[in-house]
Specification:
By secondary structure, this protein is mainly alpha-helical. It has a single domain (4-94), classed as Arc Repressor Mutant, subunit A (Orthogonal Bundle), CATH 1.10.10.10. The chain has 4 helices and no strands. It starts with a helix and ends in a 9-residue tail after the last helix. The model is unreliable at 1-6 (pLDDT under 50).
Length: 103
């Protein structure tokens, strides 16, 4: 048995795949699903961007590789039991007014 939610999601995905990008979707459930997924995608991209900026700060100020910076953020997030984004935001705040390290 197919639930109404999965049925609506299937219809919305098929409409998007078929090129009906700007088609009017009359079903409010489909609209809510598309808006929800779009917001989730935007949040994920924002997280990735903030983590990338924090890695750049670590690379510049500590002269480490990108892999080491990534591992450092992951390790701090696990040790602090928080998200990588929260750790990245703390790193950015810490280096906000710090001058760049001379080369």
């Amino acid at each position: 048995m197919v639930s109404l939610y999965s049925y609506s999601a299937g219809i919305a995905i098929e409409r998007l795949r078929s090129g009906e990008r700007y088609a009017t979707i009359n079903n409010p459930m489909e609209n809510a699903l598309i808006v929800s997924r779009t917001k989730n995608s935007i949040a994920v991209f924002e997280d990735i961007h903030i983590i990338h900026l924090a890695k750049c700060e670590l690379i510049v100020h500590h002269e480490i590789s990108e892999e080491q910076a990534h591992r450092l953020i992951e390790k701090r997030a696990m040790n602090m039991r928080t998200t990588r984004r929260a750790v990245a935001e703390k790193i950015l705040k810490h280096y906000e007014n710090a001058p760049e390290r001379p080369r």
